[in-house]
Write a structure and sequence with these properties.
With 466 residues, the chain is mainly alpha-helical. The chain is 58% helix and 6% strand. It folds into three domains: 116 residues, Orthogonal Bundle (Fumarase C, Chain B, domain 1), CATH 1.10.275.10; 279 residues, Fumarase C, Chain A, domain 2; 30 residues, no CATH class. Helix 2 packs across helix 5 and helix 6 packs parallel to helix 15. InterPro entries: Argininosuccinate_lyase, Fumarase/histidase_N, Fumarate_lyase_CS, Fumarate_lyase_fam, Fumarate_lyase_N, L-Aspartase-like.
Length: 466
């Protein structure tokens, strides 16, 4: 049954006229709660970036003469203050305010007076939220990239500290060929290096300003979209307004799928670590701080952190799948389904950040168990090496293979380990640590450059140029 006004459980009151889309019609409290859903909570995460986007919009309105200079100055001063309050958590979105856009506009009217009623000229909540999410994602990706660059460095340092420490290589969960802790650890550093390269392309994909698309068909005003892009620090403009709305969900999915791909690398490390630290293998030792005890078995130290981190990797794949299902199958333009994209996106970024933070503490803390590793260095692991060595001396490889197999069956296989090295890149003798470290240094420099560019843009945003 329609109600007017509507009261929340906390006794707060809102009227239909307080909402940005209000047309004087009554509210149904239950329907209103259903449509608002988690937005007041979720929007608090992107509210600082909604404020940044609003400042860029105000700058454009003033530059094009669509807003008086004194009104723009008052709004920018209020936005700068509100930005600090949003970052500190002082600016709170009330349940009655529906979303961050309503909370922001009401705060601007309260702080800047009638000028606050001008801020929505030339934009829609559609391009407003797309812009806020785009700004948020650019910033989040750079922070995540720094976490991963640090983590890749930890893997590389672990490898450098254990260059000559033997580790059996496994296929089918059975001993296969000799490897080393260094070769094993560098696999994860190299994988993260590849993902950091992918991140640069993903960031460029997001480095396009959607503002000015409005509801998806542009604005019947002489706005300057290129100016908005410049003052907000975007290198390019997302030109087509229909594409702007169509891209909602597409870019978010690309980010979560990238995080899931990173998680796939870490998941293998965590699996190996859980296995190699068991009593049966005993190759690696976990620090006590990363284990917990059993409530019934006094001797147990369980690798709970490793297992939960491994579970987080699967969770990231699940969140990517959840977002994909919501975004898929919609026609062009905006649909309210898109509101539900924020929950898996924001949760995915948050959970990934927590995972990477813990991984940056875990990797440097793992220690090898030299005696157990040395005991696993058995002759059988060198069968393929010996067959290759004999073939290199002139024997057909298939004959060499059969000869070594016969010796193994007879129990008299005794390879000459001194001749069983490889000299190619990636082999135990040439792991390529220096090349990897040089590439990681370049990744860090790129990330730092983008972060500094964002900070310069933000610092210059709050003032109207003379």
């Amino acid at each position: 049954m329609p109600v007017e006004p509507m009261r929340t459980r906390e006794g707060e009151e809102t009227k239909a006229a307080d909402l940005l889309w209000a047309k004087g019609l009554p509210l149904d409290a239950e329907i209103h709660r259903f449509t608002v859903d988690e937005d007041p909570l979720l929007d608090s995460r992107i509210l600082p970036w909604d404020i940044v986007g609003s400042a860029g919009h105000v700058r454009m309105l003033a530059a094009t003469g669509l807003m008086p200079g004194e009104d723009a100055a008052a709004l920018l001063a209020a936005l700068e203050t509100l930005h600090g309050e949003a970052l500190s958590g002082e600016l709170v979105i009330q349940p009655t305010q529906e979303d961050g856009h309503t909370a922001l506009e009401q705060a601007l009217i309260q702080r800047a007076g009638p000028a606050g009623r001008r801020v929505h000229l030339g934009r829609s909540r559609n391009d407003q939220v797309i812009l806020a999410v785009r700004l948020y994602l650019r910033d989040a990706l750079l922070g995540t990239g720094q976490q991963l660059a640090t983590l890749a460095g930890h893997f590389s340092q672990f490898a450098g500290s254990h260059l000559s420490v033997f580790l059996p290589g496994y296929t089918h969960m059975r001993r296969a060929m000799p490897s080393s802790l260094a070769q094993w650890a560098l696999a994860f550093a190299e994988g993260l290096n590849e993902e950091l390269e992918t991140l640069e392309g993903l960031y460029r994909r997001l480095d396009r300003c959607p503002l000015g698309a409005a509801a998806g068909f542009g604005v019947p005003l002489a706005i300057d979209r290129e100016y908005s892009a410049r003052v907000l620090g975007f290198r390019r403009l997302q030109r087509n307004p229909v594409d702007v709305n169509n891209s909602r969900g597409r870019h978010e999915l690309a980010v979560l799928q990238w995080l899931a791909s990173v998680a796939g690398i870490l998941e293998k490390y965590l699996w190996d670590l859980a296995l190699f630290s068991t009593e049966e293998y005993g190759f690696l030792r976990l620090p006590d701080a990363f284990t917990t005890g059993s409530s019934i078995m006094p001797q147990k130290r369980n690798p709970d952190v490793v297992e939960l981190a491994r579970g987080r990797c699967g969770e990231l794949r699940g969140l990517a799948g959840q977002l994909e299902h919501i975004a898929a199958g919609l026609p062009s333009s905006y649909h309210r389904d898109s509101q539900l994209l924020k929950a898996p996106l924001l949760r995915g970024i948050s959970r990934a950040g927590e995972l990477f933070q813990v991984m940056n503490r875990l990797v440097p803390s793992v220690r090898p168990c030299p005696d157990r590793l040395a005991a696993a260095d058995v002759n059988e692991l060198y069968a393929a090496h010996e067959a290759c060595h004999r073939a290199a001396d002139g024997m057909a490889f298939r004959d060499a293979y059969g000869e070594v197999a016969s010796e193994l069956l007879a129990g008299d296989f005794n390879p000459d380990r001194g001749t069983l090295g490889g000299a190619h890149t990636g082999s135990l003798q040439q792991l390529g640590i220096s090349a990897l470290e040089a590439e990681l240094a370049g990744r860090r420099e790129w990330l730092g450059h983008q972060q500094r560019r964002q900070q310069r843009t933000l610092s210059a945003l709050w003032q109207i140029p003379r």
